[in-house]
Amino acid sequence: MYQLLNGIRILDLTRLLPGGYASQLLADLGAEVLKVEDPWQGDYLRWMKPYLPGTKESALYWALNRNKKSLTLNLKSSDGRKTFLRLVTKYDVVLEGFRPGVMDSLGLSYKELQKVNPSVILCSISGYGQSGPYNRRSGHDINYLALSGALNLTGQAAGAPVPPAVQVADIGGGALMAVTGILSAYIARLQTGRGQYIDVSMLDGVISWMAMLYAQQAVEDSPVKRGEGILNGGEVCYGIYETRDARFMSLGALEPKFWQAFCQAIDRNDLADKQFTHDPSVLSEVQTIFKTRTQEEWTAFFNDKDVCCEPVLELSEVRNHPQIQARNLFDLLRHPNGMLVEVLSNPLKFAEKVELPNQIPPRLGEHTREILQDLRFTPEEIKMYERAEIE
């Protein structure tokens, strides 16, 4: 048994979602992740509702911070910056999510980090990237989706754009791109000994997810529109249909064989050649058919048929689905008070036996003394440090 990323040490300066998700993925795989948090509040996510039952601890924080350590450090003080630079000599990666310019203003630019550790990897996650007229502009997931064009393509043709429930730009455009960049830079460093600076823009990342849409836009005369494309509600064979009990089924019969299997299953072979028709009467006919059964009945009906038709589940139903249970996508962490806290597990599955750590999220500053001792602070220096942090 071994940990895949054993030996990689990461200083995590990020807060909230993108950085927290990225560093948790790396921590789950065995990287040593140290959250460096300010002493007065730490990661904002710690204090956000909803709380775990009977506590003032955020369930959201528990979802994104397992397998990490926490050190409190005031980067705005000269002593804090000196301590951070001592840490950089012992770590491989620095991950930060400040607005562009903040690391420079703290005296912790990539150039300054290189002075103490020439092989250090610095990864910056920001909304719009380190360059361009928007580089210091504030934003959130919905803004990046809006500028990418993705938001305008989400929703019904006759309605307004609909924000997705999942933070696509934060996770897909930010966190996953950061993990890819960090691992790529680390592999390159093993070969060259050189560090790297990685500039991750959540807007850039989400635009890259839209490669097929932009390719389609470039060659077709009519623009790609909300609710009218092949994969966003414009085809009868690929869409969402309401059932008799006012729930929904997802039909993904995109390939001809799946559409034909669907038509055969519902005993409507007369629709087999109408897969990509834009005749409103065909859509209406399929809508009427789905309303003849409840969601549960349709789920049972299609269970043994190769049709690509699945129920649209409520969030509370997902953990009980047999496929989800078989893949062990939920895990339990034991809170110090004995309570079991349910969290999502790491989604990666490996054929060879690897050790995946499963430690609870750290309390604010929980590992400060341990880290300072590792930096060879004397007992007197540690006492002075702790007094300064309180003040």
Automatic annotation (TrEMBL):
- Which InterPro entries does the record match to this protein? CoA-transferase_III, CoA-Trfase_fam_III, CoA-Trfase_III_dom3_sf, CoA-Trfase_III_dom_1_sf
Instruction: Write one Pfam family the protein is assigned to.
Output: CoA_transf_3
* SUPFAM superfamilies referenced in this protein's UniProt entry, alphabetically: CoA-transferase family III (CaiB/BaiF)
Q: Does the keyword Transferase apply?
A: yes
Single annotated GO MF = transferase activity
Report the domain of life of the source organism: Bacteria
Sorted UniProt keywords: Transferase
User: What is this protein identified as?
Assistant: Putative acyl-CoA transferase/carnitine dehydratase
Q: Which organism is it from?
A: Desulfosporosinus orientis (strain ATCC 19365 / DSM 765 / NCIMB 8382 / VKM B-1628 / Singapore I) (Desulfotomaculum orientis)
**Phylogenetic lineage:** Bacteria, Bacillati, Bacillota, Clostridia, Eubacteriales
